[in-house]
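Issue: ligand-bound run for 5'-O-[(L-methionyl)-sulphamoyl]adenosine - logging full I/O for the record.

Environment: standard queue, default settings, no custom constraints.

Inputs:
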Amino acid sequence: MNDRFYITTPIYYPNAEPHIGHCYTTIAADALARYHRLAGDDTFFLTGTDEHGIKMVKTAAAQNIQPQELADRVVEVFQAMWKELDITHDDFIRTTQPRHKEAVQEIVRRLVANDDIYLGSYEGWYDESQEEFVTETEAKTNEFKSAVSGKPLVRYKEPTYLFRLAKYAPRILDHIQQHRDFIRPETRRNEVISKLKAGVDDLSVSRSSLKWGIPLPNDPEHVLYVWIDALSNYITALGYTSSDPSRFGRYWPADVQLIGKEILWFHTVYWPAVLLSLGLPLPKLVFAHGWWTSGGRKMSKSLGNFIDLGKIRAIIGKHGLDALRYYLLRAAPFGNDLDWTDGDFDKSFNELANVLGNCLNRTVKMIGRYRGGVLPAAAGDLQDVDRALIERSGKLGNELAQAYERCELQQGALLPVDLARATNGYIDVTAPFALAKDPGKAARLDTVLNLSSQAVYRALVGLLPILPHKAAEGLAQLGVDVQGKRLSDLLSRNLPAGQKLGEGRPLFPRVE
Ligand code: MSP
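Outputs:
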């Protein structure tokens, strides 16, 4: 494990309110950041908004406002939403902030000084919804429509500055091949490798017909291509080129750059090329997760299957924020596509209630009823069933460390819940309610109550990154205050015998 951990989300376009896709990436990054903080790593978690480009200009024009006004309005919605979702980012960068614009201009100056940017021209297709140049072949394959949004491509023909992407392509390919874990999952890595092998051209990095963007320092008639501007946020937010680059020195290269799969190429080819030109190390991992569909179809407002803020808020109001986080992260192995169905949400909520909530509730209630709410010490010889539970709980810390190291967030959710399931099985088999009826079995009852508590305690600790509120609430019922404690401290100790437990209340009350 590192002693420092830098994680980023994409910076989102504030041209429309966030929806479940933006919330998903941000919650996933939040769970990873929370895990690493809990593990004691010096963690920095960055998110923000990508405010330049033609897409912002067109959306603003359609609303008869300036792009800056649109950005200011929508950014507030993003920030309010991250507050509602209790996202623990350490910084929120907006690409219209002076700190970003100044640093980006300095970055461009350095690229120009390296002779990596030269004047030329571009004629070809542009996908304005993705802010992406599209080759003739790709354009034809997709019938001159955006592969992501389906909107018609636009023909561009203008003088432009070009970045020497072709020069860096072999080094990038080499890096990807040498570093198995630079791009994950594996399928995404293979996609990038094939596309790189097919060959790349230099990249148009300026627009002379657009005014909304960062002017090139060497030719202010041009604004910088929005992706070069946006990708730079990952270092400008750390103070790269500023008078105080201490954060940059501490946190770069990023440990995990989390993105959706449609922006893989930008992050694994354009971004590394810029970094190489600047002489900077590449991020350790770019992880591309899958896309949410809804009811088996692409989410769209017209189909009425759009999981928007209204729906997200309704779910949080009814089932709580942690139930939403659990559903999103548990739904599929991290990296796969996912489909939202209300039925699946109910199943995942019931799993929390019936497995985790029930396990805690039974344990705390029995200790209340049979031992006056005071945790008894394990007594007498251990049986096989006891040893099996102890062994299983003892493994959780390492299993979680491995899962989080590999960004396997679904495992991060399931491993502790599986331990709670095993604990329920243990309670069923050891039948403490029957033991309680026989005064001769008091020592055995003590052991069963103690071991069940230790196991559910560990399950709750393991869930802190994913269910920060519910897990802490459950731990409070066991008399544990997690504030300021590290994972290793929490997992390496047992609940002390004699500990006074709190009151047993259902963690996930059923809702009709
Ligand atoms: N501004 C660029 C990113 C620049 S990063 C230097 C951008 N913004 S975006 O607003 O379109 O956000 C894209 C991101 O939102 C995706 O990469 C993904 O993280 C998230 N999602 C948007 N829709 C999604 C789904 N339907 N499903 C899952 N996540 C998706 O691209």
